Amino acid sequence: MNAAALLALVGRRIALRPGATTLLTLSVFALCFVAVSVFLFQQGVEQTARHVIAAGPSLVVSRVDAGGWAPMPAAEAQRIARIRGVSQATARVWGVLPGPPAVTLMGSPLLPDGSSEAITGTGPAAIANHGILSLRGLDGSVSTFRVQRVLDRTSDLATHDMVLVSMAAARRLLLLGDDDATDVAIRAVQPQEEEALAREVAADAPWPLRVVTRKQLDGAYMAQLGQRSGLTTMTLVPSILALALLVAGIAAGGDKARREVGKLKLLGWSTGQIATLHLLEVAVPAGAGTFAGVALGYAQLFVFGGGSLTATVLGWEGTAPHLWLDSTGAALTMVQVAALVLAPCGVAAAVPSWRLAHADPLELIEAP
Amino acid sequence: MIVCDAVSVRSSPEAGAIALLDNVSFEARQGTVTVIRGASGSGKSTLLSVLACVRRPTSGEVRFHGKPVSRYTAAHRDKLRRTIGFLPQQLHLFDELTAVENVSIPLMAAGVTRAEGAARAIDLLRRLQVDHASMRPVRSLSGGERQRVALARALVIDAPVVILDEPTAHQDDDRVRIILSVIEEAKHHGRVVVMAAHDPRLDAWSAVDQVLRLKGGRLAGEGG
Fold it and tell me: How distant is the Cα of A8 from the closest Cα of chain B, in angstroms?
């Protein structure tokens, strides 16, 4: 069969049913847009999170009591630093201020006690009023800070909602004592000894400790992310099935389509030629929808930074973090999504017409 | 050559079904015109649909050049229909498509290019005096124009077998003369033409080589 002639006929027949064509194109577009956004976002967050966790401490030690987490003396870092295998132990002062605005507050030795300046992530910087950020402490009191600088966007996943203030200011806002720390971050000499070191740190402590290794942190983060992404992905499955049903409905087309298949057979069209015609009638609008959906899904992550999708998948509020994606993996993901959506469409389009085209023409034309 | 050998068609496979065709046998040679006559319901259209490989006979056999085409598989019959120009009684046009597109569709199955298909379609539509409607959807055409578009579709593939069901219905005298001249041309090109007609204007048509009369699905007489 001549390809140009076939495509011209496909174009004419598509143009003759604008409603069904538009519905199909929009459905495929929406599905591809959501699927590509979710999968690329998951991929981007995973890659960025792994990078951030790898650059972080080997172990994080915090004190626990009957009520859960409890502050620990900052001097505990000196005790831990003396343990063999520990290269560095740093007492950290940090916590979450529910706000508004909700931020992760951290004490930084870069800012001297008494300073009213803050170094912020991109989230709080965006809501600062003329460079002044107001934070509500756990006791409800409000303190204002001048934003000295904004943290680099490349670390956005870890620092997006972060505010660094002086150690003293952080303790005041978090209601910690003058010598208290939230936890101690430890760097191990040998990364492969993290597990053994965790047991040793806990064994020597004067109070119960919770020790989280880098591996555990990575696992917990990925599990949480996987759960959220998995739920989002699961919602795509019924959508793909619904799309396949829509395509099958368009391809089967009821009595009129049966008669049309009969007419084509009457004129010498083979089963394969009829199935190809129907497949192309679905493939052209579905292909256009897929291309647009995939391209826009990619653009909204790479160019527009994720938008409201981040709030859905990660539960962030406000502006989304900047993501860095691996282009090779992203391309593969986009191809996978296109195949995932187009394959059921193709099957749904070809199978009904294949079945119809196996019948005798008169059976189809004279069918009630 | 077409051989119709003891062909019977029943309305359904069950016992007691009505016989639409009953033991019909005849031959039609290349370069001849066979006209089937008979009242409405006599089985003319059923016989033509069997000859056009659109319907299988319940019993008996149809042979094209000695080959039992009525026993061919569905896929073989699909391919075979590309060598049969068929004008069905109900026309079976694609109403939303233009006259040219309708006439070009059988050419597409045969692999003819779009440009060549359109050129051949327009040429035939011009000869059948319906070229003024070439680019109009066939649903907007009159009954006679639709009939000629469907006839053009049957003749455009230069098929060795041409099966026509009432090709002159709904046509005025001038158009009948044109249609008969086009059919006669097909005969002179060595095609087998079998057509059903109860149009009395064909009585004096000299191109007819054989007349078959059907009555109640049975062959009631033959003439030349």
Answer: 8
B136 in reach of chain A (CB within 8 A): no
Report residue A106: phi and psi, to 5°: -140, 135
Give mean pLDDT, residues B89-97: 92
**pLDDT tens sequence across B18-75:** 888 999 999 999 999 999 999 888 999 999 999 999 989 999 999 999 999 988 888 8
Q: How many angstroms separate the CA atoms of A45 and A221, rounded?
A: 10
What is the spatial distance between Cα A149 and Cα B207, in angstroms, rounded to a whole number? 100
| Residue B150 pLDDT > 80 | yes
**Residue B195: its H or E element:** strand B192-196
Chain B interface test: which of A2, A9, A271 (most B C-beta within 10 Å): A2
Check whether B196 has a pLDDT greater than 90. Answer: yes
pLDDT tens, residue by residue, B110-139: 889 999 999 999 999 999 999 999 999 999
Question: What residues are paired with A121 via a beta bridge?
Answer: none
User: pTM of the prediction?
Assistant: 0.71
In terms of pLDDT, which residue wins out, A360 or B201? Answer: B201
Residue keyed to tokens 């000295």: A148
- Answer yes or no: is pLDDT of B15 > 70: no
Which parts of chain A register pLDDT below 50?
318-319
Tokens in use for A122?
């991109």
Residue A339 to residues A229, A235, A283: CA-CA distances in angstroms? 20, 18, 12
DSSP line for A223-234: HHHHHHHHHHHH
Q: Which structure tokens are listed for A314?
A: 């990660």
Q: Is A327 helix (H, G, I), strand (E, B) or coil?
A: helix
Ranges of beta strands (E only) in A121-223 are 132-136, 142-150, 162-165, 180-181, 183-188, 209-213
Set of chain B residues whose Cβ sits within 8 Å of the Cβ of A358: 74
Per-residue confidence at B223, pLDDT binned at 50, 70, 90?
Answer: low
In this prediction, residue B50 carries a pLDDT of: 94
DSSP annotation of A368 reads -
* A273 with B94: Cβ contact below 8 A: no
pLDDT at A321: 55
Enter the tokens of residue A335: 């191809």
Number of Cβ atoms within 10 Å of the Cβ of A98 = 9
Sheet holding B192-196, edge to edge: B84-87, B161-165, B192-196, B32-37, B210-215, B218-223
Nearest CA in chain A to B154: A267
Does the beta carbon of B39 lie under 8 angstroms from any beta carbon of chain A?
no
Cβ(A228)–Cβ(A316) below 8 Å: no
Return the residue matching tokens 């300073």: A115
C-alpha distances in Å from residue B214, one per residue of A269, B208, B211, B220: 31, 17, 10, 5
Angstrom distance (rounded) from CA A169 to CA A167: 6
Radius of gyration of the CA atoms of chain A, in A: 30
Q: What are phi and psi of A300, to 5 degrees?
A: -70, -25
Amino acid at A322: H
Question: pLDDT value at position B224?
Answer: 57
Rounded distance, CA B72 to CA B44, Å?
23
Q: Are B196 and B211 in contact (CB under 8 A)?
A: no
